[in-house]
Amino acid sequence: MEQALYHPEHGYYSSGRCAIGRHGDYFTNVSVGPLFGQLLAAQFAEVWERLGETDNFIIVEQGAHHGDFARDVLESARNCYPDLFAVLRYRIVEPFPILQDRQLQTLQSFRDKVEWRDSIEPFVGIHFSNELLDAMPVRLIGPGWEKLVDFDRDRFVFVERSVDNSAAINQAALDWVQNVAAKLQRGYVMAVDYGSPRDEFRQTVQVRAKHRFLDSSFEQIGHADITTHVNWTSIAERAQKNGLRIAGFTDQHHFLTGIISEWPEMLQARSSNSTVRQLPDRRVCVGDVDERIKRALQTLLHPEMLGRSFQILALERGIDLVAPLAGFKFARDPRSTLGLELDLNDEKIQTAH
Ligand SMILES: C[S@@+](CC[C@H](N)C(=O)[O-])C[C@H]1O[C@@H](n2cnc3c(N)ncnc32)[C@H](O)[C@@H]1O
After folding, report:
1. Across-strand partners of 58?
2. 268 or 124, higher pLDDT
3. Could you tell me where the beta strands, DSSP code E, fall in 131-263?
4. Residue ranges making up the domain that contains 345
5. Is 330 a member of any domain?
């Protein structure tokens, strides 16, 4: 999985071949249109308030693809939260030069707001990712065995070897959350992805190209996306062990409904803003704006579309929690949903929920 996605020359992501959206291999929340970024901008503005409207506020995004989400958030912040926009810096963590170039093009008009890094550096603010964890390499491990890839004459095959039962299937994701925890000085981590708590978790690896699931991981190597479901409980546990607290966990339907309910006027305000978008492929005409927003909302919220399959895990450090963030106001207690033991540090959050 690591070689197929991240080999410097042939990898699906590192080569820049990954195509998202209607004419690509799959849809994401971001490819549905600017609404997702606009709703998240409102949530980030609330995070900024919780941090005392600090003038040292960084939005760190990892897995930014072509920079569309960053642009949607920055446009929305400029239009709707000018005080936040005045102080914020947007930091993209992007190890692949070809993707940095694409992001640079998308974000031309925000050149003085955006900075690029190869790895996560210390920050105050929010770390955001959409479908980053599902793209992290996993090991295929069952009880006492592990599957590895071998080359037999002219084709790839799976072979098995015995393995210690304590090996983690998602070591890369666990290392990632440990690293983010070490770099977050104060603020939140918000990860959007699809998966489940441990008691419902089944390891699933899926291969997609041109909106079709392929039968074998060895088909179209380097031209197909390979993803895996996220075991949210394991990520949350590792976060807690590294000093972060669980600030919320819910599905996307409840998360976005919470944000909209807090700022119901938002959808209307976005309608008029949308008409000034610059990009030809996303330009909307006066008159069809509301219809487009309605359709995007339905795709993002509907349980049969993206609403139920995606979840949001929020972690925090150094926040005085009086109430959950807007996105989690309709959520159940995150620790019981995730099947986590109560952590003494979490008492305050428990009360808030
Ligand atoms: C499934 S895509 C999601 C793209 C985008 N967030 C969206 O929603 O459309 C996953 C992205 O994560 C990136 N990625 C994977 N590991 C990364 C890492 N360690 N640092 C930064 N980006 C990474 C990949 O290059 C790829 O662009």
Report:
1. 89, 125
2. 124
3. 140-142, 145-152, 155-162, 184-193, 195-196, 205-209, 212-213, 225-228, 230-231, 245-251
4. 2-135+170-352
5. yes
Centroid of ligand 1 to alpha carbon of 290 (angstroms)? 30
Which amino acid, residue 16? G
Cβ of residue 173 lying under 6 Å from some atom of ligand 1? no
Q: What is the pLDDT of residues 56-86, one digit of tens each?
A: 999 999 999 999 999 999 999 999 999 999 9
Nearest CA to 245 out of 253, 254, 237 is that of 237
Task: Please give the pLDDT value at position 276.
Answer: 38
Smallest CA separation from ligand 1 atom 22, residue: 63
Residue 15 tokens read as 């080569």
- Establish how many alpha carbons lie within 13 A of residue 349's alpha carbon, considering only the half-sphere containing its beta carbon: 27
Domain membership flag for residue 154: no
Q: What is the CATH number of the domain that holds 121?
A: 3.40.50.12710
Ligand 1 site-directed mutation target among 60, 65, 71, 136, most atoms within 8 Å of CB: 65
pLDDT at position 62, please?
98
Helix (H, G, I), strand (E, B) or coil at 322: coil
pLDDT at 343: 59
141 DSSP β-pair partners:
146
The reply to whether ligand 1 has any atom less than 6 angstroms from the CB of 20 is yes
Q: What is residue 277's predicted lDDT score, i.e. its pLDDT?
A: 38
CA atoms of 326 and 40, how far apart (whole Å): 11
As given in the structure block, the two tokens for residue 140 are 């295929």
Q: Which two tokens stand for residue 22?
A: 């209607």
| 223 belongs to a structural domain | yes
pTM of the model: 0.91
Burial class of 167 by CB neighbour count within 10 A (0 to 12, 13 to 18, 19+):
exposed
pLDDT digits (tens, 9 = 90+) for 133-192: 999 999 999 889 999 999 999 999 999 999 987 889 999 999 999 999 999 999 999 999
> Which residue shows structure tokens 């989690």?
328
Residues 89-122 pLDDT 10s: 999 999 999 999 999 999 999 999 999 999 999 9
The SS3 of residue 9 is coil
Q: Is residue 337 part of a domain?
A: yes
Domains in the chain, number: 1
